[in-house]
Sequence to fold (256 residues):
Amino acid sequence: TGKCTSLDKQIVILITIIGFILINGLPHISIEFLTQSPRDFGAEGGIFPMIVSTIYVTFFAVLIATPFALAVAVYLHEYTNNGKVTQVIRYSLELLASLPSIIFGLFGLAFFVEFLNLGWCVLSASLTLALMAIPTIIRTTENALDSIPQTYKEASLGMGATKLQTIIKVIIPAAIPGIVTGVVLGMARAIEETAAIMYTVGSSTGVPITVFDPARPLPLHLYMLATESISLDNTYATAAVLIILILIITITTNYF
Fold:
């Protein structure tokens, strides 16, 4: 009963926060707000470049993270036992998943922006967010692979297929719903981060054309509006749009 009561309180608090933001933000969302560029540092105008930047950065982060995470998950599930190497890899993934996002941001600044000389751009931010999404995608993909009946593999091997053919043509296709769930969860984490990208993406209010252009995704734009007290109405409206995007991703994840 105590646990249920605590959970109920958390749900009430969550609904209160989300409801408060939506009540204050939705009235200020319009077609013009969603399709125009910001003016006067965000005090007027809309958030269209921020929406494009968010999609751009998140898309490339997932595009970079997914192949690597899928390969690691298959390796851990199919080609390793519980030896020291596997334990080190799993421990490293757990450590990576538990790091504060600001650490990723500082690493991205030092390595991608400065050392690799990529500068403040979409690519630097995407690489940084990819590092954050990798543990989530790996963990979810492993769970999806665990859920595949062993008889699938045995039947494929019994018909003469090699282990690699079995993995590519039988195991992975059967695990696609779980893999997609992991990718969407990784996308959800990437789309809501501010600290991880504020040192790597720049703060341009224009629409990025290439991956080497600076940008300003929605979380960063929201942070700047709120901390600099530029426009309270636009701050709530931006927060409402960001919440709606995350809700869409969450609903999609639950569907899969």
The CA atoms of residues 136 and 229 lie 34 Å apart. Residues 48-78 form the longest helix (31 residues).
